[in-house]
Amino acid sequence: MTTWTQDDERALLDNIDRWIEREVKPIAREHDQEDKYPHALVEQMKDLGLFGATISPEYGGLGLPATTYAKIVIRVAGAWMAPVGIFNSHLIMASAIERCGTEEQKQKYLPLMATGEKRGGIALTEPNAGSDLQALRTVAKRDGDDYIINGSKTWITNSLYGHMVLLLVKTDPEAKPRHKGMSLFIAEKGEGFVVAGKLKKMGYRAIDSCELAFQDYRISAANLVGGVEGQGFYQTAGGLELGRINVAARGCGIGEGALKLALAYSQTRQAFGKPICEHQAIQLKLAEMASRVEASKLLIDSASRKYDSGERCDLEASMAKYFATETGVFCAEEAMRIFGGYSYSVEYEIERYYRDAMLMCIGEGTNEIQRIIIARQLIERQG
Prior knowledge:
Helix 6 (232-268) runs antiparallel to helix 9 (350-362), helix 7 (280-308) packs antiparallel against helix 8 (314-339) and helix 8 (314-339) runs antiparallel to helix 10 (367-382). A hairpin with a 2-residue loop joins strand 2 (139-143) and strand 3 (146-157). This protein has helices at 6-34, 39-48, 66-79, 84-100, 103-115, 232-268, 280-308, 314-339, 350-362, 367-382, and strands at 120-123, 139-143, 146-157, 164-170, 182-188, 193-198, 209-220, 270-271, 274-275. It contains ten helices and nine strands. The protein is globular and about 80 Å long. The chain has three domains: 6-115, Acyl-CoA dehydrogenase/oxidase, N-terminal domain (Butyryl-Coa Dehydrogenase, subunit A, domain 1, Orthogonal Bundle), CATH 1.10.540.10; 120-229, Butyryl-CoA Dehydrogenase, subunit A, domain 2; 234-382, Butyryl-CoA Dehydrogenase, subunit A, domain 3 (Up-down Bundle). The strands form three sheets. Strands 2-3-7-6 form a four-stranded antiparallel beta sheet, covered by helices on one side. Strands 1-4-5 form a three-stranded mixed beta sheet. The chain has a two-stranded antiparallel sheet with strand order 8-9. By secondary structure, the chain is of the alpha+beta class.
């Protein structure tokens, strides 16, 4: 990973801030309300290098540390959370290939992913398997130099406009324990890879979350990540740490964005002869929101630093994900209360933050799962 100085980081973040003000904020409401994919924004993200943000420079990426990457995510999500999912899912796939793939897989895919020429996602969730990944039913059977895959996935980001997915399957459905029968494939679109339909969502609109069906989908054994069966569960778990840091940053961004909107509104809205920010009840809300946002940033930074150092950070990533995403929900709701009746109007941005916030508590492992991970890690480390 390349060395990024504070000056480098500041220059990069300033560039991101200008892009957000110029390109992201003006289109967010329209694209969200019309559930319209931001094609132009994707092209701009290519130019900014976001699709290669955490990919090593040797493969054409920026090689950003997670600490810097999380700050980018907080900024973008503070304006509009949805576009972050386009490059986050892509980068989790790239991370798995870089960490666990064969050298041939890295050379073939990572340079194209770094430029955004090929964009990917992660296909883990199934109709009957969310947090319990070991319950998945998609099966890959060996057939000479290929595998034949049958099954389905759901809620897969980048599946309509992307080019490939990191596909978790069972290569040995009878394995005990179950996780030893799971494998990962780099699955490019082709015959038998069916995008069944874009899902209608309450929030996180404009982004292509779809159902996928694999119907006798033939894939080369060369696309088995790492070239060895039975490693899929471990390969997936490693990537989820970066994913959880990202989702934590998204939750924090939603919280900070909601706080900024509420603060600005409270300074202009009058009630009982003065701006509502001068009323103690509103001040208590703003203080609590700001404190939780800052605490979230510290938890995210702690997890990111451990990730960057190569240390195990499932405890820290789960803490950050749990607290920061709950902060996003809390701040969005409190901002709705501060806006009062206007918060229910689509003419005000705050209603989008409220709709987007809850997803962060569910995605990348529910917050109930995060608390279980936290408790188990505390017990294990203490023991």
